[in-house]
Design brief:
By secondary structure, the chain is mostly helical. It has one domain. Helices cover 82% and strands 0% of the residues. It contains 6 helices and no strands. Helix 4 packs across helix 6 and helix 5 packs antiparallel against helix 6. The protein is elongated. It starts with a helix and ends with a helix.
Amino acid sequence: MQKSPKITILIHVLLILLTVGWLWFIFSHSMQNAVTSTEQSDEAAVYLSRLLFWIPKETLLSATFWIRKCAHLIEYFILGMLLALNAVSYGKLQKQFGLMLLIGVLCAMADEQIQRYVPGRSSEVRDVWIDFSGVLLGALFICFAVWCYQKYKNRKKAREKEACSA
């Protein structure tokens, strides 16, 4: 069943808007000063202490460095997924894989440059690597999901063909 051109355009526009919105979310967090950023990390630690009730709250509060690094990875994992979904929507996932990674690393570098000029924040090469890893993992996750879906579709077609010929 072929999708109508209107639906295809709507999907393209929606994915582009989601990607741009997600970048806005990432960059807006980078523009927060050190005090606000630390408060948010501490709030995340408190929230995690409720979820992971067996870990003492003090332990999680002292682990804000790791919480921040995980947040970087998760933010960019989602960005990698969105970039890959954009490529899938155009049917060019394999052809655009390198471009997705380039866009991801450029966004990570821009993110760190933003932080460089925010009071109390710093720009870290390590964070660019963490962000890039998130983009790569997110894109690979979508590649794996597409591969699984294609395998499923091919098996379903083979079964239907077998049933028709029997």
